[in-house]
Each structure stands twice: as structure tokens, then as C-alpha cells.
Write a structure and sequence with these properties.
mainly beta, 8-stranded antiparallel β-sheet, 6-stranded mixed β-sheet, about 15% helix
């Protein structure tokens, strides 16, 4: 083996090792850990009358220091996401916006992870995402808002979602959600409570409307 070939092999080896080190560093530092117990800490979001209809066999969480994603099954009909963003504990609800007809086809992240892979709602997250003072939701051209509503410490809409992103106060996309079965009836909420900030999503294959939020403790 000549000297040039040895140098090429050595260089390629260094590149491969560097890439793998960077990849595993990102996985270890930024990716969420799946958990089957943390969701219990978020059962307070449901009124007592609704808790008995939560199928705990299908509840789970994805946990990271700065955010916790919780998935609940309600009556085997509704899928409910309660996603806490701890960095936004002091954020003002009015600063979070809902934007329609946003082109999300070219949204790509240099590195990230996918939650709920191969499910009806895949969520791609940019490693090390940052939300400092606000989180905004962006809906693609195939998503439609039918009605908006708000309360003292929440605001949201009922409609159908195809693709949706969460962007920070700089307009930078940090999270991309893809409803893989096409536009899906969904209630979406920004909620400020319990000294933290939450996104709540309720979707179902069966017809429903925004009155579903009556099962939630939003006061």
C-alpha cells in the first residue's frame, strides 16, 4: 500500500469518526428520552370527570430538561398532546401568533430528531431549539382554521391541520409537525398556566368541535 493511499484512508477514517462523534454527541445532548410515567404529573390538565376516560395504556412522554411532550388517549377516540415549554414561563400569551398559508415545504433542519415516527403525526425537532420570549404556530396552505377562540389564559383555534411549524420570536422554524394522513380535525391551544407555557393539541378521526376543551382545566 503506497503512502498516498494510506493518507487517503486515514483522512476518510478521521472524517467518519468525526461525523459519528458529532452525531452521537447531538443524540446524547439534545434528543428526548421516552418515558411511561411522567405523563402522570400532567393529569391535572384534565377535569376529574374526564380522568376516568383516559386510557393510560396508551399514554407516554418525551422528556428533556427544557420541554416535556405528553401524549394522552381519551376515550380511545381523541389523541391529546400537552407539551410544556419551560423556557417560556414568563412569556406573554399575546406575543404568540397563529399564521396561515405559510410555505413549509422547504423547512429542513441541519440536525434533529423525529418524535412519533411512522405515526399519524410525526414531529421533527431541531436539535438545541430555542424559544426565548414567544412561540408562534405556522400552518401550511392545506391547513384551514374554521374558528378561533380565547379565554383568560389561553387562545387557539379549531380547524384541520396538514403541516404545522413552531417558530421562535425571530421567525426561525424550530419544530415541524406533519399529519401524515392529510388534513386532520384539530383543536390547537396556547395555554399559560402552572407557572409555565403549554401547547395543547386535540385531534380525532371522528367529527368534533372546540367544545372538547371543556374536559380541560384551563383556569
Amino acid at each position: 500500500m503506497n503512502k498516498t493511499l494510506k493518507m487517503i484512508i486515514a483522512s476518510v477514517s478521521v472524517l467518519v469518526i468525526s461525523y459519528l462523534s458529532y452525531f452521537f454527541y447531538g443524540v446524547i445532548r439534545y434528543s428526548h428520552s421516552s418515558d411511561w410515567q411522567t405523563y402522570k404529573q400532567y393529569m391535572w390538565i384534565f377535569k376529574d370527570s374526564a380522568k376516568k376516560d383516559i386510557n393510560t395504556n396508551f399514554c407516554y412522554s418525551y422528556v428533556k430538561e427544557r420541554d416535556v411532550y405528553n401524549n394522552f388517549d381519551y376515550r380511545d377516540i381523541y389523541n391529546i398532546v400537552v407539551w410544556e415549554f419551560k423556557d417560556l414561563g414568563n412569556a406573554e400569551l399575546k406575543k404568540s401568533t397563529i399564521n396561515q398559508n405559510v410555505n413549509l415545504e422547504d423547512v429542513k433542519f441541519e440536525s434533529g430528531e423525529i418524535l412519533n415516527k411512522n405515526s399519524d403525526m410525526e414531529i421533527t425537532i431541531s436539535y438545541g431549539f430555542v424559544f426565548n420570549s414567544a412561540i408562534n404556530v405556522n400552518l401550511d396552505n392545506y391547513s384551514k382554521i374554521q374558528r378561533t377562540f380565547k379565554g383568560t389564559n389561553y387562545k387557539g383555534f379549531y380547524g384541520s391541520i396538514n403541516q404545522m411549524s413552531f417558530s421562535n420570536e425571530k421567525g426561525e422554524h424550530q419544530v415541524l409537525s406533519d399529519f401524515t394522513k392529510g388534513p386532520t380535525p384539530t383543536v390547537f391551544l396556547f395555554y399559560k398556566g402552572h407557572q409555565s407555557f403549554y401547547i395543547i393539541m386535540i385531534n380525532s378521526k371522528n367529527p368534533f368541535d372546540e367544545n372538547i376543551i371543556k374536559i380541560l382545566n384551563l383556569e
